[in-house]
Amino acid sequence: MKVLLIGAVLSAQIFPAMANENCAICLAAMHNSKTLECGHKFHPSCIGDWLARNVNCPICRDTDITAMMEEIGKLVHESQNPNLTPEQAQEILDRLKLLQEQLQINMQ
Questions:
Q1: Number of domains making up the chain
Q2: In sequence order, what are the beta bridge partners of 63?
Q3: What are phi and psi of 78, to 5 degrees?
Q4: Contact in structure between 41 and 35 (CB atoms under 8 Å)
Q5: Vertex 33, ends 94 and 93: CA angle to 5°?
Q6: CATH code for the domain in which residue 37 is found
Q7: Is there a contact between 21 and 13 (Cβ–Cβ < 8 Å)?
Q8: pLDDT tens digits for 63-90?
Q9: Do the beta carbons of residue 28 and residue 13 sit within 8 Å?
Q10: Residue 19 half-sphere exposure, CB side, CA atoms within 13 Å?
């Protein structure tokens, strides 16, 4: 994943027009996109996966608080599923703790 991300960032810097047409995470053409507060666009699923583990834009490293809050809301909704396995519940809890830590770092 890191190799693809580095390639995507370099490609976006070298070929700016490409950055507007392709997702900087998976490098595939974008037919639908999610725009972060910084203005960078990605496939919704790509940036959703990214923001589940990171709070910053993969291109400019700007913190997208709105996306973090959306992720927290999604996790809270998932946590209310009565059919969660203990492993799924632990994964949700771990992701919420990570987001909390990242929020605290960005508030300092």
A1: 1
A2: 56
A3: -60, -35
A4: yes
A5: 10
A6: 3.30.40.10
A7: no
A8: 777 777 788 888 888 889 999 899 999 9
A9: no
A10: 18
Question: Angle, to 10 degrees, between the axis of helix 65-79 and the axis of helix 86-107?
Answer: 160
CA gap 10, 15 in Å, rounded: 8
DSSP secondary structure letters along the chain: -HHHHHHHHHHHHH-HHHHHHB-TTT-PBPSS-EE-TTS-EE-HHHHHHHHTT-SB-TTT--B-HHHHHHHHHHHHHHHT-TT--HHHHHHHHHHHHHHHHHHHHHH-
Greatest alpha-carbon pair distance for the chain in Å reads 48
The residue-averaged pLDDT of 54-69 equals 80
- Which tokens go with 75? 């996790």
- Tell me which residue range forms the domain holding 58: 2-107
C-beta separation of 66 from 37 below 8 A: yes
Q: What pLDDT band is residue 26 in, cutting at 50, 70 and 90?
A: very high
